[in-house]
Amino acid sequence: xMAELPKGQSIEEKQYLVRFxxxxxxxxxxxxxxxxxxxxPDKLCTIFCxxxxxxxxxxxxxxxxxxxxxxGSCRIGCPHENIRWEYPKGGHGIIFxxx
Amino acid sequence: MAEKFDVIVVGxxxxxxxxxxxxxxxxxNVLLIxxxxxxxxxxxxxGVLYRKTMEDIIPGFYKEAxxxxxxxxxxxMMMDKESALTFSYKGLEWAQEPYNNFTVLRAKFDQWxxxxxxxxxxxxxxxxxxxxxxxxxxxxxxxxxxxxxxxVYADVVVLADGVNSLLAKSLGFHKELRPDEVALAVMEVLKxxxxxxxxxxxxxxxxxxxxxxxxxxxxxxxxxxxxYTNKDSLSIGVGAMLSGLIKHKIKPYQLLDYVxxxxxxRPYIQGGEQQEYLAHLIPEGGYNSMPKIVGNGVLVVGxxxxxxxAIHREGSNLxxxxxxxxxxxxxxxxxxxxxxEKTLDSYRVNLLQSFxxxxxxxxxxxxxxxxxxxxxxxxxxxxxxxxxxxxxTVDGTSKWEKQKKIWREIGxxxxxxxxxxxxxxxxxxxx
Lengths: 99, 431
Hints:
heterodimer, A: 99 residues, two-stranded antiparallel sheet, 21% helix, B: FAD/NAD(P)-binding domain, D-Amino Acid Oxidase, Chain A, domain 2, 3 domains, 16 helices, 38% helix
């Protein structure tokens, strides 16, 4: 059941407000690409990730780790426990300035 | 590096900094490790900071800490699609010393607090990830960091590494968190002229107001939205159980936009200019989700120990209290010259006896209950709104007739029994 919510602002507009210092390598890893392709019809991470880091691109999962808020939802919410989740290198990743 | 400290604290949030501050003040050689560029740069809070626990650590802190507004009014909105039933308490005793709580912006507050620990003698190491605990002979003896030659040693390591606590997990203190143990919170800070804020929220001077929003804000998922006044900005956010977002296939930021555009909320935030968008997890599993928090040479505090009272939106105060109690246990262990689990266990005992343990115990079944029975949010809040509308609409019907109509609309006798039972059960899990 997809809840009916009006289309608000795009995630890009929100992410534009945030300061990131991207690491050169990803701290998020899809462990087995086949599981996303064959065993996960809903691709839930593409829905609940608050930064839309995960995007399904026809045959593979694109992981835009540069915009990650490091919340941990993907690691916990992936129904196949198919995401390895680490912290970015010290001083890298998201840098909240306010709240 | 291979340096040795008396104590290493991982994470410079409220729990870790409270611990490091208390230890440093007592003359202990303490290293405070923070993975962010500065303390607070990875942290998110709604954010209400309660005065009491912070003042136990630094008396009169509110005279110098970077706070936003002392809260003098707390509103609770039971919101339906085009209506809201609101309950509020406003008291001017909260507008003066010693105050009750304040809104804060954590990136500013956490830096200030960590600076205080540094002034007491703690060594703060920013931009450093603690990758794992170094375990020797069944005892935690230090941490491996991501710096070159990054092993550091200590008699005790305090894990204040936040809700995900990868370190406590790697020690086997807890299993992976479940989606029904965490709420995913997303929020925005909206810049708004302070005069407009004071007019809209009926405030004088620096005083502030908080609004907790239940019901339509989370589309029937267990969670809340909030709208808090800062000095010259508003913090608006929504937190919902991750399991609920998954089940209903809702994008969290679309839920936030839904709240922002809701006719009951929109007028408050009109003209606010977006400054930041933030996402974070809140540990909501409570008492039943608490991991093992004491081991040989190691203690777990704050969000890492799942210390959040979701019913009362308290977390940072529980975190600070746990940090102080961990520090006290370490000081006692130093006296005894023994850092075994047995000696450090005084932390766990004291924590469970304190308000932290007592409150977590009191509400131990609450999250699970409201998660399992969605009718409270899906059904009863709209029903309360309809009742209020019915009762307060003057349309020539007598009040007796209105009461009868309301009674009929609640449903059949069976449905009334079910509501009575639900109310009893809700009372049972929060009483």
